[in-house]
Write a structure and sequence with these properties.
CATH superfamily: P-loop containing nucleotide triphosphate hydrolases
Strand order of the largest sheet: 6-7-8-3-9-10
Largest sheet: 6 strands, mixed
CATH class: Alpha Beta
InterPro entries: AAA+_ATPase (IPR003593), ABC_transporter-like_ATP-bd (IPR003439), ABC_Transporter_VariousFunc (IPR051782), P-loop_NTPase (IPR027417)
Order of helices and strands: EEEHEEHEHHHEHEHEEHHH
Distance between the termini: 42 Å
Pfam family, one: ABC_tran
Organism: Proteinivorax tanatarense
Structural class: alpha/beta
Number of strands: 10
CATH topology: Rossmann fold
Strand content: 15-25%
Keywords: ATP-binding, Nucleotide-binding, Transport
Number of domains: 1
CATH architecture: 3-Layer(aba) Sandwich
Protein name: ABC transporter ATP-binding protein
Length: 279
Amino acid sequence: MKSKVNCHNLKGGFTYEAYFKCRGCRKKFGDFKAVSELNFKVNKGEIIGFIGHNGAGKTTTLKMCVGLLRPTKGRILVNGVDIDKNPEIAKQKIGYVSDNPPLYDKLTAREFVEFMYNLYTQEKKHENLNELEERMNDLFYAFELNEKYDELIEGFSRGMRQKVALIAALIHEPEILIVDEPTANLDPISARITKDIFRNLAKSGVTVFFSTHIMEIAESICDRVVIINKGKIMSLGTPKELIEKHSDNQLTTLEDVFINLTDSTNKYIVKSSILKEGD
């Protein structure tokens, strides 16, 4: 299950530093405020997870972070580069996978990944084609798609398509990987492989930033977690810090903290009491 992907194999380690910054970002669609003022930073080599209910503002935030949506107010900085003022430079540093990644069904998995590599790198073609081929082979092997390399994407399951999208986002060796619901369509083994690859990327200095509904994933691999609700950051910190900060006699897990901070109508508490009465 170990990945053999050579992900930014940095020698001598690296120093944690603010690599990605979101400064005072807001997003409105007409009169609807999707995201209130967000301020956070992500360090180099850090894994950070955004958790929130459907409609909490996670996807809107990620789309602003990769330059697909322009903030109504505020700035996004990728290693000091303003993504709005210098989008081409900033976006070359990013690998992005949406919650429903668009793939070209009439291309093979290999052809699609090569196509995405050329889009990311533009005129900067890979100087060593053998090196590109080796990285592609490593990624397909790591995600257990090495036997599907030359098959058309139209025959792939949703989980396989998700893995192709992840490979395509990593092929140009991005400095930051941003993924919306990375394990949504994956079986347990593939989800575990993806988590291991995220850990390997972070160890080599790549910043990993993703959204998820799954508390176990956030708790097990994230250095820090952002809890977002109705477009606002409710709390931010390591899973341990969040549990300690919001703990009482009943809050013992990240899931407990999340429900306590976001369940303003107490639906969960009411439902739980009904279930207990019926036992």
